[in-house]
Amino acid sequence: MTEFTPVSALIGGTLIGLGATMLMWFLGRIAGISGIVSGAAFPQSFSDWSWRAAFLIGMIVAPSLYAVFMGHLPDVTLSSDLLKTVVAGLIVGVGVTFGAGCASGHGVCGIARVSPRSIVATATFMAVALVTVFVTRHVVGA
Amino acid sequence: MPIIAALFAGVIFGLGITVSGMINPAKVLNFFDVAGTWDPSLALVMAAALITTAIGYRLVFARGTPLVEPRFLVPTRKDVDAQLLLGSAIYGLGWGLIGYCPGGVVPALGLGRIEPFVFVAALVGGMGLARLLSRLRTTSQPA
């Protein structure tokens, strides 16, 4: 159970949009996290790797900065099932590579550019995630 | 200079994921659980992020070039093909199983917990597997 948090959702979403805008303004790049991770993990050149690594490091320190202001780390509930975590990670890795993006690259940056590919991709992965959660929570797990 | 700019943008983006609650996979899964413990927060996160990015991109593209690079690197493809649909469907399956997406799990690495590292290792493994598969396919079927 998590609570509906409209105010922090809107503030956080605006910050995500600002971060995406900044990356385009500074470096002319899409803030698609799957693409940035992929390019960091399988580097083509040092200059292409270094900005990706810097962006990812910035993302990783963000919860600590949040804790400085708020006095605590954000509340999270993580699955302790590591086998499921590995299986889901492999599936997401294959999916975002063939699908050329994830919730940030397609769902935010792509739709903001009114890219037809991103609109179709986002509708597809949101629909499949919805069905997956329904099946795992109400059909198989019920 | 590009490194500092990227770091700064990453901090703001990561703060957005953290503040919005999207760092918490349980909140993501509850968004998809419309028949159960529904939490609509993700819809507002995406709406706010989309509106901000759409306005921001308009202003930035109007400048002609980025600040520290010679040009914008933006995808130009418009065709919807089977690979895009199938890949997105596979991603949706994994996302719905665990609630981590790449954008949500990277800041979660900064929480000091082991689970996000396990997911990211598998995520990179999956990316490597997909790259290998597409390389095999292109070498076995030219054109």
From TrEMBL, chain A:
Q: Which InterPro entries match?
A: Sulf_transp_TsuA/YedE
Tell me where the transmembrane regions lie. Answer: 6-28, 49-69, 89-112, 119-140
Q: Where in the cell is it found?
A: Cell inner membrane
Q: What is its main location?
A: membrane
In terms of PANTHER family, this protein maps to: INNER MEMBRANE PROTEIN YEDE, SULPHUR TRANSPORT DOMAIN-CONTAINING PROTEIN
The UniProt similarity line reads:
Belongs to the TsuA/YedE (TC 9.B.102) family.
Q: What name is this protein filed under?
A: Sulphur transport domain-containing protein
From TrEMBL, chain B:
This protein's UniProt keywords? Membrane, Transmembrane, Transmembrane helix
- InterPro entries xrefs: DUF6691
Record-annotated membrane-spanning stretches: 41-61, 82-105, 117-134
What Pfam families has UniProt attached to this entry? DUF6691
Name this protein carries in UniProt: Permease
